[in-house]
Amino acid sequence: MFGVDWKLSERRYEFDEQHDFVVPLADGNHLGGTLFRPRTSERVPVLLSVHAYNNEYQTAPIKPTGFSYQRGWIEAGDPTFFARRGYAHAVLTVRGIGASSGEFQAMGRQEVADVAEAIEWLSAQPWCSGQVGMFGVSYFASIQIHVAMLRPPALRAIFAPFGLTDFYRDMWYHGGILNHRFLLQWKDKFDNVRYQSWFRRQHGEEAFQAAVAAALADEEIAEVAQLTEALRHPEGGNGLVADIVLQPQDGPFHEERRVDYRHTEVPAYLGACWGLFGLHLPGAFRSWENWRGPKKLLVGPALYLDRPFYQLHFEALRWFDHWLLGNDTGFMEEPPIHLFLPGADRWVEATDWPLPETRWTPFLLHEEGLLSEHELWPGEHSTGFEDSPFGHGEAVFLSPPLVEETEVMGPMVLDLHLSTTDTEALVFASVFARFPDGREEELTRGWLRASSAELDPARSRPWRPEPALRERRPLTPGQVYRLQLGLAPGARLMRPGERLGLRIKAADDEAPPDAIRGAGYGHLQRSTAARLRVHHSEAHLSQLLVPVVRGNLLGTFLSGGQLPATVGPLPIAKFRQPKGSGS
């Protein structure tokens, strides 16, 4: 690739593959994998990709296809691309996985420290220039961000799009509700996994068995056979599942796997796609907001890259050429943020996030399923629905048809007043566009366990309320509670005639529209039948804060913007004659 006055490293090298490549660690363990090296006597920079899956398939010459759970874990990219252009590329498994020794930690502190140590070892090899970058998506990306916090001296840059940074909130417990479907699919992708329970080591065997018994007695968990199987037989990947199930509130186990952003000097390329609101999207924006070093952010359409992925290779090459080779292509003078705008199918450039021009506009929930900027009318009260194992009802609110193009882009907030006949409520909120022909396109989702709704003021922002999720307080049946749900960022160009919709349920039993958005579906459900009410009255106002970037200057029209064809009758009796009139 080249431009008018710049060009990237050229494709001019043959390369060698070493499939029994080993990086020794100071504690006697090692990381195993594959090394791709260009055939040259020159010292070259190294790209490091680290993961928890099968290493053979990461680098196999498989023709790419669309993302699926079958191939979703093939995320190292094509190492031959970089080797042909003068970079060595090492693809390694973390400890306790594949050919690496030790015990798996699932992004624990020792696992992260191993990678920092491997970077320094690689940089000292006689064929290395001393410059190391990290590359890859998903697990590959998350561990890059963790490693960057340790500041290994040889690490010059990370290319880490699609990297969640808070396993508890981004993946395992959305809003405090266990996302078991994705968790159970994920743990089956680990290769030759050796795992020992964190909970058992920290609290002892007696406490571990007591916690398992309590979890098995929990009706929400008992409904999912694979979870009870993992609790009864907590070996291998099941051991990690058990640890996650046994720690449903935020705490030390989850904190250890959360990026603390204490050192963000390493140049970082970040990103995600709009469809991954249930996995990587929140982490991409969280990293952007907290990063102080050089950074780029790219958020694309709801397509999580082909597998094996290759679409970002030239972008990554430009990034690494800049930071590892000193090849200034003008990359860092370009706008730092690129955001795809669905509906318009074009890219938007920006300098900061949330976008400075954003106007969070309140759309109030009304009776008869109306979602509108209009104030409440006197006498409005609530909308009810039922939830039970026999059927999951819903409350749907729709805006009037839009009369002008309106760009929506940013995080959303649902300020909800809710009551239930149960002692708990699991709230699932989705925002969608409804087209004139009745089709729907989901923009984003939010989740909240009502008993854990208390906010963490230190983490919360007006556009992003953050529940602390550290305890559960049973609800009083019939009492109205204010719940503030921070929905993941979403984006769409809404066109005239389209409606903005909000769906509120107590379960996510519907089929996800695709494998990408499916990461945000498949949570625990209540086994109790309950009647829930969404309150929208003067005393209990419920509203959706919508991030309007452009348009909607006049707001929506209850008339749909249509003028009546005829003039109706006037209530003549209400029109009084002035005093002294002779007629």
What attributes characterize this protein structure?
583 residues; alpha+beta; Rossmann fold; Jelly Rolls; 3 domains; 10-stranded mixed β-sheet; 8-stranded antiparallel β-sheet; 20% helix; globular
Mean pLDDT: 95
Strand order of the largest sheet: 1-2-4-3-5-6-9-10-11-12
- The assembly state of the depicted protein chains is single chain
Distance between the termini: 88 Å
| CATH homologous superfamily designation of the largest domain | Alpha/Beta hydrolase fold, catalytic domain
- The helix fraction, in percent, is 10-25%
How much of the sequence lies in strands comes to 25-35%
Give the topology, please.
Blueprint: E1 15-24, E2 30-38, E3 44-51, H1 55-58, H2 79-83, E4 88-93, H3 109-123, E5 128-135, H4 139-148, E6 155-159, H5 167-172, E7 173-174, E8 177-178, H6 180-187, H7 198-203, H8 205-216, H9 219-222, H10 225-232, H11 237-245, H12 252-255, E9 268-273, H13 281-290, E10 295-300, H14 313-325, E11 337-341, E12 346-350, E13 359-365, E14 371-372, E15 382-388, E16 391-392, E17 394-398, E18 406-420, E19 426-434, E20 440-449, E21 481-494, E22 499-505, E23 530-535, E24 543-550
Can you tell me about this structure?
- The model has no long low-confidence stretch (mean pLDDT 95).
- The protein is of the alpha+beta class and 583 residues long.
- It has helices at 55-58, 79-83, 109-123, 139-148, 167-172, 180-187, 198-203, 205-216, 219-222, 225-232, 237-245, 252-255, 281-290, 313-325; strands at residues 15-24, 30-38, 44-51, 88-93, 128-135, 155-159, 173-174, 177-178, 268-273, 295-300, 337-341, 346-350, 359-365, 371-372, 382-388, 391-392, 394-398, 406-420, 426-434, 440-449, 481-494, 499-505, 530-535, 543-550.
- The strands form four sheets. It has a ten-stranded mixed beta sheet. Strands 13, 14, 15, 16, 18, 21, 23 and 24 form an eight-stranded antiparallel beta sheet that branches.
- It is built from 14 helices and 24 strands.
- The longest helix has 15 residues, at 109-123.
- The protein has three domains: 15-165 and 259-350, Alpha/Beta hydrolase fold, catalytic domain (Rossmann fold, 3-Layer(aba) Sandwich), CATH 3.40.50; 169-255, no CATH class; 359-550, Sandwich (Jelly Rolls).
- 20% of the residues lie in helices and 28% in strands.
